[in-house]
Amino acid sequence: MVRRLIGGVIFLSITLSAAVLMANREKPSLWQTYSFNGKDFGEAEMPGPAAVALRDGYLPAVASGNAPREDRLPNGTGGLALFCYIQSAGGKLKPQRGAIPMSGVVVKVVGKGFILAGRTDSAGYLILALPPGDYEVRIPNFSRKVRVGKGKNTLVAIRGGKRMVD
Questions:
Q1: Is residue 151 assigned to a domain?
Q2: Range of the domain at 79
Q3: DSSP secondary-structure letter at 140?
């Protein structure tokens, strides 16, 4: 009888310990971090100065050392993470990659029947939730067409200037 009781206590203790370990185990992040290398975006191992975290259904977040805020997209909208930059390396003769974020740039987003305006943050990003549709993003002397999908995030870079280094 005592052996059964001790065996039951040991079994229960092991089961509870395993459950606690499973509950405390770090859950995989559903956020994907992307960084801009001067030409395009790619998945980033470590967030850099031009990195953004994306997760469908959530507002994009400029990446930092901390976990992104989990702000859900408003119903019926999609997210736009726009990165404005100046090319910092390369040119016609040397196709090197490099980018300097453009902070404080006024951005106009032109949609069907309306215009929004915003300003890029210190990392060169403008983060918006928009109704699904096609838009034209404008900064002084440059523009780009983008499409935003419902519940999805769109990641776009727009070059605001080019440093000629060749």
A1: yes
A2: 28-162
A3: T
Q: How far apart are CA 55 and CA 152, in angstroms?
A: 8
Strand-pairing partners, residue 106, are: 119
Structure confidence by residue, pLDDT tens digits, 12-63 = 344 334 444 444 444 455 888 898 877 788 887 655 666 899 999 999 998 8
| Residue 15 placed within a domain | no
Could you tell me the end-to-end alpha-carbon distance of the chain, in angstroms, rounded to an integer? Answer: 87
Which residues, at least 6 apart from 27, have a Cβ–Cβ distance to it below 8 Å? Answer: none
C-beta of residue 32 within 8 angstroms of C-beta of residue 56: no
8-state DSSP, 121: -
Convert the pLDDT of each residue in 115-151 to its tens digit: 999 999 999 999 999 999 999 999 998 999 999 999 9
Please provide residue 24's backbone torsions phi and psi, each rounded to the nearest 5 degrees.
-90, -10
Beta carbons of 143 and 48 less than 8 angstroms apart: no
pTM of the model: 0.74
